[in-house]
Amino acid sequence: MSNPYQIRYDVLNMAKEIADKHYDMQVDLANKMLGMYKEDTEQALDAWQKYVPKALNPDEIKAQAEKLYEFVSEKK
Length: 76
Hints:
By secondary structure, this protein is mainly alpha-helical. The chain has one domain. Helix content is 79%, strand content 0%.
């Protein structure tokens, strides 16, 4: 059985993986949109600015981990 510290670590790691996957999907979308408008520089720049994801924020990862941990610690 896992100890509470291991569970918290696992939940934090899971939240980081979710954030990483979301970021990667957003980067892929931004690159696809950039590719669609590669002939028109202005449209390409607009698409990039619209779809490029913001950098991962530790506070957002922590908030996601807290949501996941809430589920784990819920007693039913």
